[in-house]
Amino acid sequence: MALYKTLIVIAGPTGIGKTALAITLARHYATEILSADSRQFFKEMSIGTAKPDATELAAAKHHFIDSHSIHDFFSTGDFEISALQTLEEVFKVNDLAIMVGGSGLYLDAVTKGLDVLPETDMKIREELNTLFRQQGLDSIREQLSAADPEYYAKIDQSNPQRMIRGLEFFLSTGSKVSSYLTNSKKERPFQIIKIGLNTERANLYARINKRVDLMIAQGLLDEVIGLTDYRELNALKTVGYAEFFRYLDGAITLEDAIVQIKQNTRRFAKRQLTWFRRDSEINWFEPGNDNAVISLINEQLTKPAQ
């Protein structure tokens, strides 16, 4: 029996088995799952985001899967508010809840809270979006890396929205976003247990390659073709979609697109691990050690909250 309302967080790189563990824990503790994967929110993107399949969704109640459209603006701050509201409802009937995902900023938004930043100039945002459309992300990368190298090093450098936001802030205020990131932790009305999954690099990369092959077999290219009209949306400027758009443009071969998806997914996993390894509260496990994870959680549940 838990002494406090408790959020169990499952973090780790893409392809490591977080979904399977989350479902195991949700069934074991008879509770619900919140997804903190910034791409699985979007109902139009399924294969390329490796969403839980119908069987997995039926095994435990999930929140924030197919909850939004690619046409919706759903920021990290929006997720913080919505997730905390959802947890409040879940905790009315359960002592525990599960949150799972590879998007470190979204997990931190719920467990630590976001820093409040000053308002920025919307005209500058429009100018940067135009620059991005005309010259691509490299033009934004170069300016941001020079203006705020600390923020640049922390974020997903393939995420246009995040990159533009950092440069927009600098150009609007003359200050670095990184100077406002205090890392001050907000108090939450529940305790948090963090579980991380990882394995040695060769095994992780083999899992990633296998997952990409499965996505191809499941029809990822057809999914991308169906989204071609919306390719300029930020949600679709991501691994698995961007490479196939380049193939459809005739810029690369199909074989090269698949190779690049695997390569870029491996790079993404490396960035995820860099983010998560900074968090000393994460308890790390090899995938498949579900009983050891449950033992640690049960031990933590009987301890007074820190």
TrEMBL record:
Region: Interaction with substrate tRNA, residue numbers: 37-40, 161-165
Gene Ontology process terms (BP): tRNA modification
Family in the record: Belongs to the IPP transferase family.
Function: Catalyzes the transfer of a dimethylallyl group onto the adenine at position 37 in tRNAs that read codons beginning with uridine, leading to the formation of N6-(dimethylallyl)adenosine (i(6)A).
Protein residues bound to ATP: 12-19
Quaternary assembly: Monomer.
Coiled coil: none
Origin species: Pedobacter antarcticus 4BY
Keyword Oxidoreductase: no
Enzyme class: transferase
Cofactors required: Mg(2+)
Its EC number(s): 2.5.1.75
Site feature (Interaction with substrate tRNA) residues: 103, 125
Keywords: ATP-binding, Magnesium, Nucleotide-binding, Transferase, tRNA processing
Protein name per its UniProtKB record: tRNA dimethylallyltransferase
